[in-house]
Amino acid sequence: MCIRAGPYVGLAAPPAYTGDNTYTEAEIDRIRAAGRIASRALDAVGAAVRPGVTTAELDRVAHEYVVSQGAYPSTLGYRGYRASSCTSVNEVICHGVPDDTVLGEGDLVNVDVTAYLDGFHGDTNRTFRVGEVSEEADQLIERTHEAMMRGIRAAKPGREVNVIGRVIETYAKRFGYGVVRDFTGHGVGSAFHTGLIIPHYDSAPAYGDVIKPNMVFTVEPMLTLGTHEWEQWDDGWTVTTRDKSLTAQFEHTVVVREDGFELLTVSD
Ligand code: MF3
Ligand code: CO
Ligand code: CO
């Protein structure tokens, strides 16, 4: 079996993407196949989450599953990133790098996996509870998932993509949560990030791209118990809340249909 690596591996940045963000049914089938592998990798990671496990071990679980399916872990070698997943613990908003950090009871860990198969990417993440977490953290996780689903349901042909963030921010504000603005959803498919931006806050009139049937993109809100402001570690990747408040995230790759949507990053 031969695994095809992403075309950007070894380059400082991916080659410019010139296509649009809508796909044929045959192409959507291939995004779904990649997305299923990413989702099943997260199932395997979830089964391995427990107090005492390291984020590097979770990354290994994700890596082994993706390659066992003949797919390539898209993050490996993407803009110089050196792991097969992002593992973001507690105050880490996104792009946490797997290392020897040992997870403890009460921690939150988000794991983000993208699989590349047959020329197409499927991108998904989930936030896992390590053992039992605080009530506050538990609700943050639940409501971040709900915010993602509300954003996805708001995506309909003819509307602007900024409807998604408007719905997510309105919901998050009910609970006083911070809504991260500077990391966004994105077009995904034949490129990992196509250039289409999907904000998770109310950005109107900016980001007025009109949603079309068969458009594919991610929705991946990051909500916090405090500020939406962030800072980055010297590793050039890890992004944390500025006030070190807890944060959670969920992500699906979705295709918009004439009459609704389909999740492309599901396990069955
Ligand atoms: N999977 C992430 C996303 O949702 C991107 C990770 S890029 C990396 O868009 F280089 F940090 F791995
Ligand atoms: Co993404
Ligand atoms: Co992702």
From TrEMBL:
Highest taxon of the lineage: Bacteria
Residues reported to bind a divalent metal cation 1: D112, D123, E251
Keyword Protease tagged: yes
Cofactor note: Binds 2 divalent metal cations per subunit. Has a high-affinity and a low affinity metal-binding site. The true nature of the physiological cofactor is under debate. The enzyme is active with cobalt, zinc, manganese or divalent iron ions. Most likely, methionine aminopeptidases function as mononuclear Fe(2+)-metalloproteases under physiological conditions, and the catalytically relevant metal-binding site has been assigned to the histidine-containing high-affinity site.
Residues at which substrate binds: H95, H193
Entry EC number(s): 3.4.11.18
Binding site for a divalent metal cation 2: D123, H186, E220, E251
Keyword field: Aminopeptidase, Hydrolase, Metal-binding, Protease
Domain Peptidase M24: 30-258
Catalytic activity entry: Release of N-terminal amino acids, preferentially methionine, from peptides and arylamides
Keyword Metal-binding: yes
Cofactor: Co(2+); Zn(2+); Mn(2+); Fe(2+)
Any one of the GO BP annotations: proteolysis
GO molecular function: initiator methionyl aminopeptidase activity; metal ion binding; metalloaminopeptidase activity
GO CC field: cytosol
Function recorded in the entry: Removes the N-terminal methionine from nascent proteins. The N-terminal methionine is often cleaved when the second residue in the primary sequence is small and uncharged (Met-Ala-, Cys, Gly, Pro, Ser, Thr, or Val). Requires deformylation of the N(alpha)-formylated initiator methionine before it can be hydrolyzed.
Entry similarity comment: Belongs to the peptidase M24A family. Methionine aminopeptidase type 1 subfamily.
Complex and partners: Monomer.
HAMAP family: MetAP_1
Protein name, UniProt field: Methionine aminopeptidase
Organism: Leucobacter massiliensis
Gene assigned in the entry: map
